[in-house]
Predict the structure.
Amino acid sequence: VTQINKLFNRQIRTYSQTFLKNHHNVIYTKLVMNGKLNEHLAETDKCCNERMKLLCNAMAEQEGVTEELKAFDQMEWVCRMNNIHNRAEEIVLNELVYTILYSQRRV
């Protein structure tokens, strides 16, 4: 799980920076010129990770993906958790990274 989180953190930083650079160049340039790009990316990472944790926990609980399932059928548990993680990641990216209002609000 830790390696997945580290990979997710790198992806969020890369997605955030690339998205700003390609779709909101003025905002990206302002952040770079003001020396606030890293601060913005770090704050985005933090928000995304908190949201991911909440979504994954809520989805796992709602779908009955428990420690009991993990003990009984590890492969099924891994499949379900990967599915949950992928759906949560897509939601987080759309809510917190790709949203223009979020980007503009934080400059």
Summary: The CA atoms of residues 15 and 97 lie 7 Å apart. The mean pLDDT is 84.
